[in-house]
Design a protein that fits this description.
Number of helices of chain B: 12
Number of strands of chain A: 21
Distance between the termini of chain B: 10 Å
Strand content of chain A: 15-25%
Radius of gyration of chain B: 24 Å
Largest sheet of chain B: none
Order of helices and strands of chain B: HHHHHHHHHHHH
Structural class of chain B: mainly alpha
Radius of gyration of chain A: 26 Å
CATH architecture of one domain in chain B: Orthogonal Bundle
CATH topology of one domain in chain B: MetI-like fold
Structural class of chain A: alpha+beta
Distance between the termini of chain A: 53 Å
Largest sheet of chain A: 11 strands, mixed
Shape of chain B: flat
Oligomer: heterodimer
Strand content of chain B: under 5%
Largest interface: A-B, 68 and 63 residues
Number of strands of chain B: 0
Number of helices of chain A: 17
Chain lengths: 544, 306
């Protein structure tokens, strides 16, 4: 009987599933059989970005695509140093406030048209135009009248952007901004095509036909929420640098699924892995890489609310955390955060970064004795009489296990056991934290640009991201001074002083510095992940 | 019949309006909004974006705007995905979810009903025990566990099928199996108990006594009547299967509507939440109507209109 056969088949298939599922992990087979034919990197970067319009994008995934399809005035090399992009060279006036960019004449859009200074002027003005709704418009606020224009208080003509001729662009800034040349390599400041955008409206960055760029790659196929295919752009002025035929970017959002897909040989690069798999991957696979990012995971103390309005309490809490345990045992990746500005953020002197010059403010292991002493001085010897407090975090497994571990450390090292964990859905958590409606809150910051300022100016009075709700006139003054400083050494010295001020006040408890947990097949060479989390493919080689 | 359908459609429109209104109210009363960001937006930028999406208007005005658009068949722009309308999100996601749902449905009907029938006919024999053992297992194992297992075995270890994504006909197999498991098991059990009950009825005994062939008794008299409770279950199930499953679509990275539905809520993508809700509700109402009409076809005892 047929039906009996079907039932038999069902039974058999279910049974075989159970049996096979318990097998031993085997050697990896079939190392990317089809990748070698046409040198395409198969790269997964999580959920499809909300937009890949360079002006509108705020995410690293969208930024990675924009950085492959477009090129700014400047670009970055393998060491994340600034190199010429569309601009061959530039002049800077002595007050460091006016930049004149000289554009190369052989830069072309993917449809063959030349890239001109007007393209940049249009792109920047567009990003600043309030009608564009660009959230990252503030990346351009360094330009004269830009902030006013964005708020509708100035005209486009007033902007400090001047097209001298087709290949010369003059930019006037409000203040010397030493990292301005870094910003010009950033997606928000990349050129876009006026004719294309005016013809297609906000749909231009939704279709590969109109998504015209001037970078090393161009888009040829896009299946929404599934994949975007980029191929080498033959019109790119430096096309000899590009050694691969293209990139297949897939949008698998689930970490376990991307790892399965990677292990099945369907992908060459994935840039996150499930935390629960990190231990196994570290042991089993040479492909596992921890790439440092310019970001810090921390707990914000609400400095306006008891008991954390007392600096001694805050310090005690920050000292009582064993950061090595979090990094090694709990999260299994990242590096212990001994201060706020992460490693890799440049300082005035090349070769040494801001962190190594600034030193450590918190121990990697808990300093229990000092923490207890401070807590006693604050009036809570051995945690006695400490009021009930709560720690809020947004509901993910990672935040939960870290919070539980930290709670345990505070309990055993400080003797405080009446701390409550309270998890919230993301959309509820963010406004709660921003309003300062908490005592301790999970927090994190990834730089908007690679300079200490993006980490330090958070804590100026009234800054929307000043989650500790801290306010200090001397600190505000220092940040202001740093913004106006023309000498880079002097500016960095001020920023070090400013960082020391809020770390001595322990307005937060830094936990770890972010790393991106990446799996890269050994035949993929020269993949560059910037500290801001953008992945660059223009120098990638496939060696097989 | 026609009057009945017209009446039902009228009632459905009212139901839909109630659903949209309740969703609108609940959606706006949960904390956070489409502009909730980890990094807070500068005030001026926030204001100009709110202006674009009418988010700074009073709620009743936003409600009116929404219905104004709806009257023209426009569900508005997504507040999360730049340059994409909700109509496009549904037009893109639904066919994918529907294809996967249909495959799962087919699998379920082809396996679940025969398994149930065989169990009922071979009551308490080994076929019955085996089928019911797996049916119990199928109901008990969560589909994400089975999905992960299937990916590991057929994708990673045996490399017979793609682990994920929606690229070829092979992509359908694993998610369809994972998606179909629970309803298949449930349908098998439902068919079995319904069939056992029907087989004990007098009219079946009469049919045997009349000397009808085994085929006629089983299929024409027994199975047809046993199908009524299954059809009841199928209506909402089909609506659920075709509009996509969040879990399965997420695990297999399938660009369907099920993922969008859940994501839009955590994104506070107001227009998408409403649009997908309306779509899902309308589909569900429609399927229930179809089921009610089918009763009349299958069971002559049921009359829709007196």
């Amino acid at each position: 009987m047929k039906k009996r056969f079907i039932v038999g088949l069902l039974i058999l298939s279910l049974f075989s599933t159970l049996v096979c599922g318990c097998g031993q992990p085997q050697q990896e087979k079939n190392p990317a059989a089809d990748a070698g034919k046409d040198k395409v990197v198969r790269y997964n970067h999580g959920q499809e970005p909300e937009t890949i319009d360079p002006a509108l994008n705020t995410s690293t995934d969208g930024g990675t695509i924009a950085a492959a399809v477009f090129e700014g005035l400047t670009a970055v090399d393998m060491n994340d140093e600034i190199i010429p992009g569309v601009a061959e060279s530039w002049d800077v006036t002595d007050d460091r406030k006016t930049y004149t960019f000289h554009l190369r004449k052989d830069a072309k859009w993917s449809d063959g048209q030349p890239v001109t200074a007007q393209d940049f002027a249009y792109a920047w003005q567009r990003a600043l135009d309030p009608n564009t709704k660009a959230e990252y418009a503030y990346q351009l606020f360094y330009i004269q009248q830009a902030e006013e224009f964005n708020a509708g208080q100035a005209k486009a003509e007033d902007l400090g952007i001047k097209v001298v001729d087709d290949y010369t662009l003059e930019v006037r800034l409000n203040a010397p901004t030493p990292y301005f040349l870094r910003l010009t390599s950033f997606p928000t400041l990349m050129p876009v095509r006026q004719d294309v955008i005016e013809k297609n409206g906000d749909k231009w960055a939704r279709k590969v036909e109109t998504y015209i760029g001037n970078g090393p790659f161009k888009a040829t196929e896009w299946v929404s929420k599934d994949h975007l295919k980029l191929v080498k752009n033959d019109q790119y002025w430096d096309k000899n640098r590009v050694k691969i035929d293209g990139i297949m970017i897939t949008f698998i959002g689930d970490e376990s699924t991307m790892l399965s897909s990677y292990e099945a040989g369907e992908l060459d690069v994935i840039d996150s892995v499930p935390l629960t798999e990190v231990d196994r991957l570290k042991k089993e696979s040479k492909d596992f890489k921890m790439i440092p990012l310019a970001g810090t995971y921390y707990y914000a103390f609400n400095t306006q609310k008891a008991p954390f309005d007392n600096v001694k309490v805050r310090k005690a809490f920050a000292l009582a955390v064993d950061r090595t345990v979090i990094v090694d045992k709990i999260r299994k990746s990242g590096t212990p955060a001994t201060a706020f500005v992460p490693p890799g953020v440049p300082d005035a002197t090349p070769g040494k970064d801001f962190r190594s010059n600034g030193g450590d403010f918190f121990p990697v292991k808990a300093d229990t004795a000092q923490a207890k002493k401070l807590l006693a001085e604050a009036g809570y010897p051995d945690g006695k009489g400490f009021p009930d407090v709560s720690l809020i975090y947004n509901s993910t497994e990672e935040h939960k296990i870290i919070a539980e571990a930290v709670l345990e450390m505070w309990k055993s090292n400080l003797g405080i056991s009446n701390i409550k964990l309270s998890n919230m859905e993301w959309g509820v958590f963010i406004p709660t934290r921003q309003k300062g409606d908490f005592q301790i809150a999970r927090d994190g910051w990834i730089g908007d640009y690679n300079d200490p300022m993006t980490f330090i100016d958070l804590f100026t009075t009234g800054n929307g991201n000043n989650d500790p709700q801290w306010s200090n006139a001397q600190f505000d003054q220092l940040v202001k001074k740093a913004r106006l400083a023309t000498d880079e050494k002097e500016r960095m010295a001020i920023l070090h002083e400013a960082e020391k001020l809020f770390l001595d006040e322990a307005i937060m408890c830094p936990i770890y510095f972010y790393t991106q947990n990446t799996m890269i097949k050994p035949y993929i060479k020269n993949l560059h992940v910037s500290p801001l989390g953008l992945t660059y493919f223009d120098r990638v080689e496939i060696t097989k | 019949m026609f009057r009945y359908v017209a009446k039902r459609i009228g009632a459905s429109l009212f139901t839909l309006w109630v659903i949209v209104t309740i969703t609108f109210i609940i959606m706006h009363s949960i904390p956070g909004d489409p502009l909730t960001r980890d990094k807070q937006l500068p005030e001026a930028i926030r204001e100009s974006i709110e202006e674009q999406y009418h988010l700074n208007d009073p709620l009743w005005k936003q409600y009116a705007y929404y219905f104004q658009g709806l009257a023209h068949g426009e569900m508005g722009p997504s507040m999360k995905y730049e340059g994409v309308t909700v109509n496009e999100i549904i037009a893109q996601g639904f066919p994918v979810s529907a294809q996967l749902g249909l495959a799962a449905l087919l699998l379920m009907l082809l396996v679940g009903i025969p398994a149930g029938v065989i169990s009922a006919l071979r009551q308490n024999q080994w076929q019955d025990h085996a089928a019911m053992f797996f049916a119990t297992l199928g109901v008990a194992i969560p589909n994400f566990v089975l999905a992960t297992l299937l990916i590991y075995v057929f994708g990673v270890k045996l490399e017979l099928l793609p682990t994920s994504r929606w690229v070829s006909w092979q992509s359908v197999i694993l998610p369809a199996v994972a998606l179909a498991m629970y309803p298949t098991a449930y349908i098998a059990r439902l068919t079995r108990s319904s069939m056992v009950e029907v087989l004990g009825q007098d009219y079946i005994r009469a049919a045997w006594a009349k000397g009808l062939s085994r085929r006629t008794v089983l299929y024409k008299h027994a199975l047809r009547n046993a199908l009524v409770p299954i059809i009841t279950y199928l209506g909402p199930l089909i609506a659920g299967l075709l509009t996509g499953s969040f879990v399965i679509e997420k695990i297999f990275a399938i660009p369907g509507l099920g993922q969008q539905f859940v994501l839009s809520i955590s994104n506070r993508d107001y227009t998408t939440i409403l649009g997908v809700t309306i779509f899902f509700a309308a589909f569900l109402i429609f399927m229930n109507l179809v089921v009610d009409l089918l009763y009349g076809v299958i069971d002559p005892r049921i009359h829709l209109e007196k």
